[in-house]
Amino acid sequence: MNVQNIINEIEKADPEVYERLDGRRSAMKNFARFSGKVALAAIPVAFGSMFKKAYGKGTEVTGIIEDTLNFALTLEYLEANFYIKGVGTAGLIPAGPGVGALTTIRDHENAHVTFLRTAITALGATPVTFTAAQFDFTAGNAFADVFSNYDTFLAVAQTFEDTGVRAYKGQAGNLMANNDILTAALNIHSVEARHASHIRQMRKARGASVKPWITGKDSGIGAAVQPSYNGEELTTQATVNIININGLNISAAAASEAFDEPLTKAEILAIVDPFIV
Amino acid sequence: MLTKNSSEKKRIAETGGAVQSLSRRNFLGYIGGASALLFTAAACKKDDVNSDDGVNLGSGDPGILNYAYALEQIEAAFYTKIFESPFSGITAAETSLLGDIRDHEIAHREFFKNALGSSAIPALVLDFSSIDFASRTSVLAAAKTFEDLGVSAYNGAGKLIADPAYLTLAGKIVSVEARHAAYIRDLISNGTFADSTVIDANGLDMSRTPTEVLTMASAFVKTKLNASNLPTS
Fold first, then answer.
1. A141 or A62: which carries more pLDDT confidence?
2. In a 3-state reduction of DSSP, which class is residue B51?
3. Which residues on B lie below 8 Å from A101 (Cβ)?
4. What is the rounded CA–CA span in Å between residue B129 and residue A243?
5. Minimum CA–CA partner of B94 in chain A
6. What contacts A82, CB < 8 A, 6 or more positions away?
7. Global pTM?
8. Contacts of A41 in chain B (CB under 8 A)
């Protein structure tokens, strides 16, 4: 990114850009402090923040982005705390490859929390904060043995990952006004899908009837998590019927698996509500 | 199409800036004479759709959909070919799940074909000669390349899409590609579903520009693809 070129371009549209930037020394200082601290991927976000501060508090569109990122951050806190507790609970995860896999996933969720906090702060908003005590991973005893029964733990993990994928997918449209934020959210979205795939393979290896992808609206878990899977059975996309499309042999199962479906923010919040005290 | 070689570029430049805003037809009429004849000869080596500049993916959202259609053509053809003569030692579980992936990719390909209608690019001529389909190692390595590439392609294309409905559609597909990628990676080496070769220190997956993706994909595609009209932001 050539910062000077960008400023030159802006100067064509706004001859007072230098004055604006110079007039907001704190914004420049913020940017300098930022670029020293944050990882490279967050710099475009921080740069956007500098201009936002220079041009004053933003529009409603920016508000939607901030709200959406705080929604995502809430879900990442939920996941991060879940894996922190699970990986940290002696005797829960049997010795073997599961330990490494769940540690990897925990580290990703922690990184997502840090990244989203940085991004929200860079946009000039305040990130939400959750502590471990604010989560009840038994969901009011629906999963009473979540930290003593490995299969229950993996079932909840699968639900969180599949739900997370649907949550990010449902919010992409709200981030279109900021290319860097949208791309970052998409880059998190596919990581959650990789996690979901692996957790499903772990459950399959322990006898659960699941595949790395979602068939119909089957959870392979039970009624308690059904809201996280309802709607996944869709076999028509943008009015195109996928079953046996163009005379090719595509089953209803494959047609539903081939496309993951989004959920709205309200649907997601209803799903995670029992887990948040 | 206007820049066949440097001497023509120079000639175009010499005729003045106004030329740039003219359509090609007007341009040919405008410069006239011998240079037009030269230009015509160069431009018409092949037919108009499939010129030296390759199959044009188009512009705007249809261009991005054609870009996705091209990638899904590669993936669908690859998995279809696996089942023409499965690699030795393929397990029942692999047959089942790789068959699922084949069907998903065919569903994606045909969806884009139908959604694009008359705007769809033609079927690509593909080249899988670098893959040893008798070898599990070779097939899975190629599958990993295609799936990780697909994920990064959709991730990078998201910001290029104008219509939120298409963005959601791309999102519906990319997470399935990511599920595939994780499965294939775990088949190669369990636990590598999201390792540091694809996920960075911020926990973010990769995204690639169409140019980066098409350069990598070109090893498997004989048809030349022209992405020059795709949106860039």
1. A141
2. strand
3. 191, 193
4. 32
5. A211
6. A109, A135, A137, A156, A157, A160
7. 0.81
8. 200, 202, 204
